[in-house]
Amino acid sequence: MRKPELLAAEIEAHISSGVMRPGERIHSVRELSRLKGVGLNTAVRAHEILEDRGLVVTRPQSGTYVVGPRQDSGITPPRRRLSVPREVDVPGLVSLVFESAQAKDLVPLGAACLTPDLYPCEAINRFTRQALREAPELVGGYALPPGQFEYRRQISRRLAKHGCSVDPAEVVATNGAMEALSLALRATCAPGSAVLIESPQYFGILQALQQQELRVVELPTHPRDGVDLAQVEEALEKFDIGAGLFIPNFSNPLGTLMDDARKAQLVDLFARHDVPLIEDDIYAELSLQGGRPRPLKAFDRRGGVLTCSSFSKTVSPGLRAGWMLPGRYLERVKALQCSSSMGAGSLSQAVLAGFLASKEYERHMASLRTHFSLQVGRVSNAVRECFPEGTRLTTPRGGFVLWVELPRGTDAVELSRRALESGISISPGILFSASNRYRNHLRLNCGNRWTPSLARALAKLGELAKALVPVVRSA
User: What are phi and psi of 56, to 5 degrees?
Assistant: First the structure.
């Protein structure tokens, strides 16, 4: 083994043993060179090896920090059981999760929202003023579907950088990702149709399916490998499926990433059965290791994929700036949007177009990805330290949520109630299923800054969870 590998292995051992913890700064390449008596190139290469393994992340003009160790998911793999089409009935707890995200006196671990100061608010305000100076008439007119050309062009340019070539004419501006998903479902499915989804699945999507009176077929999803393509094919052959709806890039709540080969197979499966495939791509820019993965749309040759996304998780939820690629459903989507919302906000589109065209967007995204790499590691470490013995959690590849499995028999709904009484909001697992599964699971939001208050909240949540673990009595 060469010197850089030996040096990287030594540091990795310290990270794995807990001597070096998530969020801690490691020696710079110059410090490492001096302390270990090795050349500067050796120290640089050791840093690169650690970054390639996802163990550390470098923050420009700040230093290199511990992220890992990156462990395989400990979550119990699901049973390979294909459900029958069923109606969706989302618990009323969803409203409580959204309301608690707005409460100033709660530690927000429930809804997947960022601390406001993580958004580029100053830059967005500046681009807003610029847009109004250059075109004051923006606030006096509609941007009818498909939306402003420059906004759609900037989205097209970004997608082209990541292996997905689409013309701006194929892009539709929307009021956030949820409008895009709702339009995609309305364009492809009649009421009563069955939609093939991953399980667990984001409760906002389940709400949208319920409101449109659609049924679901839930596919148990592996916390590391994602959905089983053999089961996808079985469901397409067994049931009359109106559409599929998947989150291949950093699913919510598992954080799994489907590789390109399996994406191509998934798109081909739906194309062969002539069933539309809807993609929620909202977390794709938030990779914790490596660059932005390609969307399913990159593998679409027949126009059957409808890709939906927004900038609410990365730039500004207040602007409600989303977009979609409707494929062969373009004209139907435009008509549906025109009859419902009259299109996305003209000012929001102009502001995002300016921000995307600037260098500030890339700098902001690099900073945000670094923050989430550190924060997911810190929260994961706190869960391992403070939660009951036998607790398991995911190792997300991207995004900023953690899926936590508590010991069998532990009621996460009751934990949610007790947590609220202690000033902490969480999302219990039953919200992520149409069939009341995952009662001993919860999702934690890592979109906050690490503070003493957050550390205390996680420790308190661990205490509350321990009190709810059933006592196993010996015979």
Answer: -135, 165
Q: Using an 8 Å Cβ cutoff, are 388 and 406 in contact?
A: yes
Q: Examine the pLDDT at 161 and tell me if it is beyond 50.
A: yes
Place of tokens 């067994």: 238
Beta strands in 152-193 (DSSP E): 172-175
Could you tell me which residues come within 8 angstroms of residue 89 by beta carbon, excluding any fewer than 6 positions away? 210, 434
What pLDDT, in 10s, does the model give residues 21-54? 777 888 887 888 787 788 888 778 878 777 766 6
Q: What does residue 232 show for φ and ψ, rounded to 5 degrees?
A: -60, -50
For residue 378, give both structure tokens: 């810190």
315-344 b/e with 16+ CB inside 10 Å = b? bbbebbbbbbbbbebbeebbebbeeebebb
**135 DSSP assignment:** -
- Tell me the whole-structure pTM to 2 decimals: 0.86
The domains found in the chain, sorted by start residue, are: 3-64 (1.10.10.10), 91-117+362-468 (3.90.1150.10), 119-359 (3.40.640.10)
List C-alpha distances in Å: 437 to 231, 302, 402, 405: 19, 36, 17, 12
Token pair for 31: 């410090």
